[in-house]
């Protein structure tokens, strides 16, 4: 499964990069395949391990912010691995045709 999520601290002002970095650090230290872009962090693995990482990423922001907003989208597709790479490669292949 692939989960794309964003964690946004609320009530801490406009500059939230430091808080987001704390959440991304949790994801990167998990050892699961992941990518971060301007809007979301995507992580790939089994349901329980991915959701545990998301929970811990939210908790690290929640520890410093009075309120946290979370947006999450999941692609649950049993038997598929390396979806973070293969899905993008498929689109790129079609773009090059």
UniProtKB/TrEMBL annotation:
SUPFAM superfamilies in alphabetical order: MTH1187/YkoF-like
One family name in Pfam for this protein: Thiamine_BP
InterPro entries assigned: MTH1187/YkoF-like, Thiamine_BP, UPF0045_domain
Cellular-component GO terms for this entry: cytosol
The Thiamine-binding protein domain, residue ranges: 3-92
Top-level taxon in the UniProt lineage: Bacteria
Similarity remark: Belongs to the UPF0045 family.
Name the record gives this protein: MTH1187 family thiamine-binding protein
Protein source organism: Streptomyces rhizosphaericus
């Amino acid at each position: 499964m692939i989960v794309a999520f964003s964690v946004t601290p609320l009530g801490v002002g406009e500059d939230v990069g430091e808080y987001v970095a704390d959440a991304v650090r949790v994801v990167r230290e998990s050892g699961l395949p992941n990518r971060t872009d301007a809007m979301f962090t995507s992580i790939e693995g089994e349901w329980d391990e991915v959701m545990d990482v998301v929970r811990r990423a939210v908790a690290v922001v929640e520890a410093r912010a009075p309120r946290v907003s979370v947006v999450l989208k999941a692609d649950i597709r049993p038997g598929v691995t390396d979806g973070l790479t293969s899905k993008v490669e498929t689109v790129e292949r079609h773009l090059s045709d």
